[in-house]
Amino acid sequence: MDKAALAAALGSPAPFGQSQFAFVRGNAFEAKVKADGGTELMRLLYERLGGDDGAPREISVPDLTAAGPEGRAARTALALREATEAGGWALLDHPMLALEVAGSPAYLEPDAVAVHPDGTWTVVEIKSFPMVDGSADAAKVGAAARQSAVYVLALERIAELTEGAEVGHRVLLVCPKDFSNLPTASVVDVRKQRAVTRRQLTRLTRIEDIAAALPEGTTFDPECPRQQLDAAVESVGAAYAPECLAACELAFHCRAKAREAGAVEALGRSVRGELGGLTTVGEVLAAAAGKEGDPADPTVAALRRAAALRAEALTGGPACR
Asked: What is the Cα–Cα distance from 290 to 292, expressed in whole angstroms?
């Protein structure tokens, strides 16, 4: 299913996407980092992660060419096993990894995976956003950490079948230094993100189960009438959150539906978590106004206190004590 085409057919196209300039700049920076057989990249890796094996001198760069994603994933797994058995430094450029998601295989392509002489596998993520004075934008680093955690999980499946292999939970994030085109790197620990992602994956409903629960004749063909498409999308439960806007083509459609229903999810997951059993904006406002809700409920009490403070501030009443 092409979600971008579906979103356009529903009248809520996603206007986001990487600009052509940013795409070209990102590719050029990645090529610079991986030039000369990954010499600079492996230098950064050794600088940040160290080890007792000595700085990389001879680096193996295996050929990962194969037919289709399934073939490339098998070739990657073989290359990882061979590199680990060889006991040297190796750099896998754009390997293909497979991870089971809701009962179906999903294919992932990290920027690189480095194999250490001791059998450790390290995920390498190359981003084009700058690292100024040794630090980068926290939100972007967080997104890179979540992305890398998925790669770590996929690698762990291969490592379980590879003697002497261990997947490192610290990934190497490579970015331009300050506002130049020179690469620098930092180490990001993704154990927390890995644990969260693994828990989320175990809770996902299998695609077959979702399909079986759909009304007979449901289709997501963008050529269908909009009313039919709208009904089809509504038949699949969605938990909208503002973060969806950065990752899902259907986010604008789901946001419109959430706002139409007055769902508190539209205000963010953290807000939704604080509001407990109050699921709509109408319920929240009614509780704050004292029209609904149990006064003994801490959430209701906090809302009423906040409403009283707001009223005092607007009317110039007594100061908050």
From this structure: 6
288-to-140, 300, 312, 320 alpha-carbon distances in Å:
36, 7, 14, 18
Per-residue confidence (pLDDT) for residue 318, from 0 to 100: 58
**Residue written as tokens 């939970």?**
169
Residue with tokens 């090529």, as numbered in its chain? 31
Strands 89-93 and 112-115, bridge-based pairing: antiparallel
Q: Which long-range CB contacts under 8 A does 17-20 form with residues at least 24 apart?
A: none
CA-to-CA distance for 146 and 62, rounded, in angstroms? 27
Q: Which tokens is 114 given?
A: 């480095």
Look at the chain and count its residues. Answer: 321
Gap between the Cα atoms of 249 and 146, Å rounded: 19
pLDDT value at position 321?
Answer: 46
**List of the chain residues with pLDDT < 50:** 319-321
Q: What is the domain count for the chain?
A: 1
Q: What is the pLDDT of residue 214?
A: 81
Relative to beta strand 112-115, strand 120-126 is antiparallel
For Cα atoms 98, 101, 106, give the angle at the middle one, nearest 5 degrees: 35
Contacts of 284 (CB under 8 A, 6+ apart): 264, 275, 278, 303
The answer for residues whose C-beta is within 8 angstroms of residue 203's C-beta and 6 or more apart is none
Sign of CA dihedral 7, 11, 16, 21: positive
Tens of pLDDT, residues 214-237: 888 888 888 888 888 888 888 887
Percent helix, strand, coil in the chain, to 5, is 50, 15, 35
In a domain, 129, yes or no: yes
Residue at 291 is within a domain: no
Q: Which of 69, 119, 127, 111 is nearest to 90 (CA)?
A: 119
In angstroms, the CA 150 to CA 167 distance is: 12
The answer to whether residue 152 is domain-embedded is yes
- Tokens 């991986």 belong to residue: 34
Residue 299, in any domain of the structure: no
Residue-range definition of the domain harbouring residue 137: 35-202
